[in-house]
Design brief:
Layout (H helix, E strand, L loop, with lengths): L1 E3 L4 E5 L5 H11 L22 E6 L4 E14 L2 E13 L8 H15 L4 E4 L13 E2 L2 E8 L14 E6 L2 H15 L12 H7 L14 E6 L5 E9 L3 E2 L2 E2 L1 E10 L2 H11 L5 E5 L8 H5 L7 E6 L2 E4 L2 H6 L8 E7 L8 E10 L5 E7 L7 E4 H7 L6 H6 L3 E3 L2 H11 L12
Parallel strand pairs: 5-6, 14-15, 18-21
Antiparallel strand pairs: 1-2, 2-3, 3-4, 4-5, 6-17, 7-17, 8-15, 8-16, 9-10, 10-11, 11-14, 12-13, 18-19, 19-20, 21-22
Length: 425
Amino acid sequence: MSAATTTGYRLFEITADRVEDYRAVDGMAFAEPARDPGLDAEVPFAVPLDRAVAVETEDGEIVAVHGSYAFALPTPGGSVPCAGLTWVGVRPDHRRRGLLSTMMRAHLDRSLARGEHVSALFAAEPGIYGRFGYGSASDHLRLTMPRGAALRDVPGSADLTVRFVTLDPTAHEGVVEDVYAAAGRGRPGWIRRGSDALRRIAVADPAAWRSGGEQARLLTVHAPDGSPRAFAILRRTQTWGDGGAEYPVQVRLSAAVDAAAAHRLWSVLLDLDLTAKVTTGMLPVDDPLLALLVDTRRPVPRVSDNLWVRLLDVPAALAGRRYAAPLDVVLRVRDGLLPANDGAWRLVTGEAGADGTHGARVEPAGAVAPDLELDVRELGAAYLGGRSLAALAAAGQVTAARPDALHRAATAFGWPVAPVCPWVF
């Protein structure tokens, strides 16, 4: 692929011999420390070459990059093909020349041409991506808890056993992936790593990542038959105060398939010797841990935006999820970058399935007066069920012809499980 861009620049897919140049631009854009090439065996370059795109000058110097992964994005009650946007960077001496806008338009067009209904990303700077139609669709929670924080009892927890070992990427990749997949089943946004390289990175632990801490450890919880039910990848760092050991515990990633496994996992993590506090990885804002804590005031919460979602094919994306209530609504969608989305769409749900949710068909509404008017950005924000259309309307970002239409749409787009992706891609 090659395309003309801003005068004096060219957009192209990189080849294997230019990966280092591509990485160097990303490192400069994000002020990363010098990279040890020896890390490649542990932390491979995971962006597929046919999805790694760069901008070069007429002299052949790469000055801007972006890439994407092919994901299946879990939606409320379903799944859609998704382009996971990543590695977006422009060299500081080539900013303000339209290169980001050129790359974003190319990304949207290329993703749509591949049949991907949506694109999703983690925003390094949240002020950037709204103008390209991405909406903040979910949040994640991190908790910092004191050692010994009490948990409510859960039947079956005492029957489970635990193992605490040094993380071995080769031996433990499978168990981490299997428990992760089982724990997230049915949760919107819970993206699985779609390649061997990404799965390898999930359990990588190069010395450069440790910041003075120990080698990563793996805590697993097992049923009486030995099958894994929960895991946590964690690191402790030796810290001593006037009163003795005050080690912090940093959990990188965790997952549990049920309440008993979650209780057993956190009971151990909250009572490790020599430690003073435990900080979780990215949790859903409705994670069971919140309901298990006896004292909900002492843990220090931090909530931050998680996935940002951009609908590329509005009718296909809306038909690719289920709805919590019956609905017949006309949406007037504004999309200044993808004209095929711009217009009125009628979304009609069918009969409820066995799970009580509704599928939908979506078709052009022509000149029918819309019930709701909104930008594709707000439609992306509401897409996973993590943002309320009613709240967006209260903020002046959605316009409703009638209050009852807004309430019905807000109820149908909602979902009982909060969306989250617990790892940054």
